[in-house]
Amino acid sequence: MKEISYEIKDPLGIHARPAGLIVKKAAAFKSDITISKDDKTADLKKMLAVMSLGVKQGNTIVIKISGEDEEEAYEAIKEFLNENL
Predict the structure, then answer these.
(1) Buried-most residue among 12, 27, 39, 65 (CB within 10 A)?
(2) E strands within the chain?
(3) pLDDT (tens digit, 9 = 90+) per residue, 14-37?
(4) Which one of the listed residues 2, 15, 46, 78 is annotated catalytic?
């Protein structure tokens, strides 16, 4: 299992546009991918679940990746976070 801990820098947090993009990115992989904020966890492949976390600027999220292509998913999602959030 791979894990990414990331502090959100985007002033708007994870709003509709980046949420849609990261969900699309996650959906390209077979691995199970979850996103957590505080005590809430959601499937990163489900847009409404991601939006329901209400991630704001300054929040720290934890993304856990587990499965056959976890290394590729880890690299792609880490790159996405650094470029977009």
Answers:
(1) 65
(2) 2-7, 32-37, 40-43, 60-66
(3) 999 999 999 999 999 999 999 999
(4) 15
pTM of the predicted model, to two decimals?
0.91
* Contact (Cβ atoms closer than 8 angstroms) between residue 70 and residue 31: yes
Instruction: Provide the CATH topology of domain 2-84.
Output: Histidine-containing Protein; Chain: A; (3.30.1340)
Residue 51 annotated among the catalytic residues of the structure = no
Q: For 45-73, how does the pLDDT look when each residue is reduced to its tens digit (9 = 90+)?
A: 999 999 999 999 999 999 999 999 999 99
- Helix then strand then coil, in percent of the chain rounded to 5, is 40, 25, 35
Place of tokens 């546009």: 17
What are phi and psi for residue 47, nearest 5 degrees? Answer: -55, -50
